[in-house]
Design goal:
By secondary structure, the chain is mostly beta strands. Helix content is about 5%, strand content about 60%. The relative contact order is 0.15.
Length: about 425
């Protein structure tokens, strides 16, 4: 039986990236007024898809910083997204780029997905590329999906030439439903705001099928969104929350644990509403099983300023084949910024464990932050957190249970370098 030891960490591992810009530059006042919008991901499945939703949860996700103006390109890449016969892709490579001058602004976002195989080979493609591009000047905002394309797309064994595929074209899929190709939707009036959403492949399941994919499931491959808005909020927010997430050389572990019940908070917030996501259960034998999991995200005005808040919770957790169990694990990351006082703050108040047991030892529900539990071949950190506040921002980052495997010789059959997070949340609020 492992003996607990409490260690105050001097350096915390990063919970997750919240892609937000800094506080701006001296030249910001001379730039075109307005803020950027957009995001990209390689694959996605809605909550109706059950386990597939966890595996395909916005792979290689990137969000566009509202006020970034330096012309740099942010990138994210993942390999081997595998949801079995329902959906597989070899690689996803995503980029976002923005730039701004005194009279113009542009945003160019791409998602490039290689080696796609859907519905047991009913749909195949060598490369699928989604491009969302927006240009703005002092008079107008224009968005386009130009350069979005397929390379060697085959549906039901028939090759479809990229030049012949119409935007929003629908193809029936016998025994499953249908697929929508190259769907591009423009939003805004082109003066005060303008954006485009590009989904290159959207599979819609409308029938009981041999792969047991639930009816009303949607599977999206290669998504890109870009936009510009003349509004410049005083305070911008950001954050994300996951019931589980994983990185591992064992791609089966990384895919199945995935970013379950993932939710993101965009820089413009949620306009005072609370967004929600959930998963009915998680079943990855020997690694993690659980009951219901849920996440929330809120961004908007509150007493005391502007708040960014994300939460994650999971019930009836069984982690590492019974090494860790809990009736409830709940995490809260809350950040605020007040323009009046020019001050920010971060908090994890409300985070807690319910009946947490590790290696047969009951852990207090109010266990101290950053408690380290050594295990054979690695360690578990409980309530790993970092908060900050001050004149420039308020931030909160939290992982309730963080497993790191450091040795190949361990009791759990996991390769060295495996990193699994159970209930994580982060939030940030700062001046535009």
């Amino acid at each position: 039986m492992n003996r607990l030891r409490v260690v105050l960490l001097s350096t915390l591992l990063v919970v997750g990236l919240v892609p937000l810009a800094g506080t701006g530059t001296a030249s910001a006042a001379k730039q075109l007024k307005g803020s950027f919008r957009g995001n990209v991901y390689g694959s996605f499945a809605n909550a109706k898809a059950g386990d597939i939703a966890t595996t395909l949860g916005r792979s290689a996700y990137l969000v566009v910083p509202c006020n970034r103006t330096d012309g740099k390109t942010n990138t994210n890449r993942v390999t081997s997204v595998d949801a079995g016969d329902a959906a597989k892709v070899d690689t996803v490579y995503n980029t976002v780029m923005t730039d701004k001058t005194a009279r113009t602004a542009l945003i160019h976002n791409t998602s490039k997905v290689s080696g796609t195989r859907l519905l047991d080979g009913m749909i195949k493609a060598d490369v699928i590329t989604a491009v969302a591009h927006t240009d703005a000047d002092v008079d107008k905002i224009k968005s386009t999906a130009k350069d979005s394309k397929f390379k060697n797309l085959r549906i039901l064994g028939t090759r479809l030439r990229n030049s012949e595929i119409k935007s929003g074209e629908r193809v029936d899929l016998p025994g499953f439903g249908h697929v929508i190709l190259k769907d591009a939707t423009r939003q805004g009036n082109g003066v005060k705001s303008g954006s485009i959403v590009v989904n290159m492949v959207t599979v819609v399941i409308t029938r009981d099928n041999v792969l047991d994919i639930p009816i009303d499931s949607n599977i999206v491959i290669a998504h890109a969104k870009s936009g510009y808005n003349r509004n410049e909020p005083d305070v911008i927010v950001g954050g994300s929350a996951f019931v589980t997430s994983a990185k591992s050389n064992a791609t089966d572990v990384e895919n199945k644990v995935g970013r379950a019940s993932a939710i993101w908070l965009g820089c413009e917030g949620t306009h005072g509403k609370t967004r929600r996501n959930n998963v009915n259960e998680l079943v990855v034998p020997g690694v993690v099983t659980s009951g219901a999991g849920r996440t929330t995200a809120f961004g908007g005005k509150v007493d005391g300023g502007t708040q960014a808040k994300t939460t994650a919770a999971v019930e009836n957790l069984n982690f590492l084949d019974g090494l860790v169990t809990a009736d409830l694990v709940e995490g809260v990351a809350k950040s605020t910024y007040d323009m009046g006082s020019r001050s920010g703050a971060g908090s994890t108040e409300g985070s807690s464990f319910g009946n947490l047991v590790i290696a047969g030892v009951s852990i207090p529900n109010d266990v101290a932050p950053n408690t380290v539990v050594p295990i054979a071949g690695g360690e578990i950190i409980l309530r790993e957190e970092r908060t900050s506040g001050g004149a420039n921002e308020g931030t909160a980052r939290l992982i309730m249970i963080h497993l790191t495997i450091t040795e190949a010789d361990n009791l759990y059959g996991l390769p060295a370098g495996t990193d699994i997070k159970i209930v994580s949340a982060n939030s940030k609020a700062l001046p535009f």
